[in-house]
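Narrative of activities, Objective 1.

The group set out to show that a structural description can be obtained from nothing but a protein's sequence at a throughput compatible with the screening campaign. Below is one input-output pair from the validation batch, recorded exactly as produced.
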Amino acid sequence: MELDIQCEEMSPSRWAELLTTMKSCKTIRLDDCNLSSSNCEDLSSIINTNPSLTELKLNNNELGDEGVEYLCKGLLTPSCSLQKLWLQNCNLTSASCETLRSVLSAQPSLTELHVGDNRLGTAGVKVLCQGMMNPSCKLQKLQLEYCELTADIVEALNAALQSKPTLKELSLSNNTLGDTAVKQLCRGLVEASCNLELLHLENCGITSDSCMDISAVLRNKSSLMDLSVGDNKIGDSGLALLCQGLMHPSCKIQKLWLWDCDLTSASCKDLSRLISTKESLTEISLIDNNLRDSGMEMLCQALKDPKSKLQELWVRECGLTAACCKAVSSALSTNKHLKVLHIGENKLGDAGVELLCEGLMHPNCNIQSLWLGNCDLTAGCCATLATVMATKQCLTELDLSYNPLEDEGIRKICEALKKPSCNVQQLILYDILWSSEVDDELRALEESKPEVKIIS
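Output recorded for this entry:
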């Protein structure tokens, strides 16, 4: 049994009612429920008395260090079988880390710890690393984003990595590590016996100086499938170094996030080679890089290569115009694997989207999710989009937000939604003005097709 509640204020009577339910739950998720340390005392009892409980998620609640202390009393009992613990943004400090260290040292069932967005600091996480080094600790996933870590944490992390062959996922994004620390971390990862599958280093103050060391991790850790270095100014030179590791035969990367990395069209030659030859690669994010039409055309050529197995391409806010849409359309009509295309916040215009729709209508195209928000679209392209919606049953999600479609355009989209052949289940229409009459039509449509969710 699962209990999954979000964004609900807990009255005493409601809480008492839920406590009864929790006694038999395998999963308890109570994000954004205005919980405090007093609730944690009850939850500790649940942990102690419910041996079937394996996942506890309490993100975005003001639990504080006192609340975690209560929770850990339950976590330290022999009957506890908890595997996944989420305490993101719970107003924790380094004081919580000593208690959590005890749990890591004593509770071999715990395989995931998510404590991001808490002011644990370097001193606090060093204490957590001591717990990880205990032979009883079998941690596989550690999430430490936004924890106010500095370069001084790396020595303790590397020591923990050396002793923890079970670790598969490490998230350190949004901490001011810098190049020197990231280089040191990468050397530790290369030497460590762990089979790391996920490494997230977004917004860590990385430049091209770190990229050779990250490349070494990619070459030496064939287990690494998910790498995110977004929001770091690595530039074209850094990307070229990364690609040396990415192109290595032992690298089996599947998901690569390079958003806002100061890349230009000059990087697209290396990226194209990667997309066309690295068959393991299924998802790449290049959001907020100045690729321009010339860069996008190179990427599209790579997508047409039979060896490309890319399923998700994120090129939002990349300086694209209608000039690249013929190339995108050609790629869509050739590539059978691409399922998700985020191309919003580019000035494609109606003419560009008309071209895209030619590719979308091709029998080879299997797009499921299409994002065209803020693309300078008007009602002029909506008839063609409506045809795609009514014809391509693979299309289940469409974002047209921040485009001045007005009543005329929205009505055309609605007509497509009404058709039995249309399989769109989620239509996103943020910040579009329409009349009260159209609003009534949208509500009526949702009632007649409850499987359709219109988000506005």
